[in-house]
Amino acid sequence: xxxxxxxxxSCDETAVAIxxxxxxxxxxxxxxxxxxxxYGGVMPEIASRLHAENIGFVLQEALDTAKISLKxxxxxxxxxxxxxxxxxxxxxxxxxxxxxLYNKPLIPVHHLAGHIYANEYIEKLEFPLLAIVVSxxxxxxxxxxxxxxxxVIGETRDDAIGECYDKVARVxxxxxxxxxxxxxxxKEGKHTYQLTVPLRGEDTLDFSYSGLKTNVINLVHTLEQxxxxxxxxxxxxxxxxxxVGLILERAKKAVSIYPVKEVVLAGGxxxxxxxxxxxxxxxxxxxxxxQIPPMWCCTDNAAMIxxxxxxxxxxxxxxxxxxxxxxxxxxxxxxxxxN
Length: 339
Ligand code: KG4
Fold this sequence. Notes:
By secondary structure, this protein is of the alpha/beta class. The chain has twelve helices and ten strands. Strand 9, helix 9 and strand 10 form a beta-alpha-beta unit.
């Protein structure tokens, strides 16, 4: 165990966490959502600039909260990918600089591994495990035979589910990030619009969300052209049933194929109230434990990066200072990295 300082800057949250022997001493998150909201989504160039402006302040606040100084830190951990290339660069440069200055190891952390292991702040994970990773940039089913062993058994062939929520919200005139208002309004609506079910009838664990997104956008435009008012609550409900329905179907299929003891939700979309309640119901007959992360674990933070870093520190998985970011880093490639 060790004193670890972890940095996360893969998208629109600048975050620093400090953990000592597995206990979280600080978890500071500065979100840029208010800035990006006016564009209806994250503007990568603005995100990088804001990370560069904020990271020093976030770092100082974390040190003050934890009541430690940089020379006490045993290792500096950072999200290396996946994410926005410029945004990732800011976190990595900061971690590399600190690692060089204080002559302490640099630990490369995979963002999605972070989302999965955030659940360990609640309870230790039980393997074999199925992680349902649903976020703004990713939609994956990850099978973990054991600790830190990742196999992607299904993934989106196009858009991520969160991205689809955000685009659908935009066409309905709802604010960014779109998952939150859609989740809320769907509770007041009825499933009245018939939308295409993605990959219907295909024997696969993969996902697809671009067709569903286009389906909603075209339907809204057609109704507007005909001067027919769109019932936003009903559209939200109809869309959410299909979008989340696909996750539920894939989860059932995966646990009937793989010998899974536990299923965990991970990523921003795991904040969705319908997904959180339905996943427990649909998996009840399968005799698996279902772990729903608390809301603070769903959004991006550096505590989850520290959690993975603790494991990598024990295994001495350190990176050279020549390390670069990898915006498309696949979780399975951790193994190659370790070797
Ligand atoms: O994990 P995250 O911060 O993004 C990535 O790291 O990629 O997740 C952000 C995504 C956004 O697309 C947002 O619309 C979605 O999570 N989201 C939700 C909800 N809250 C946030 N989607 C559905 N229902 C929600 N309640």
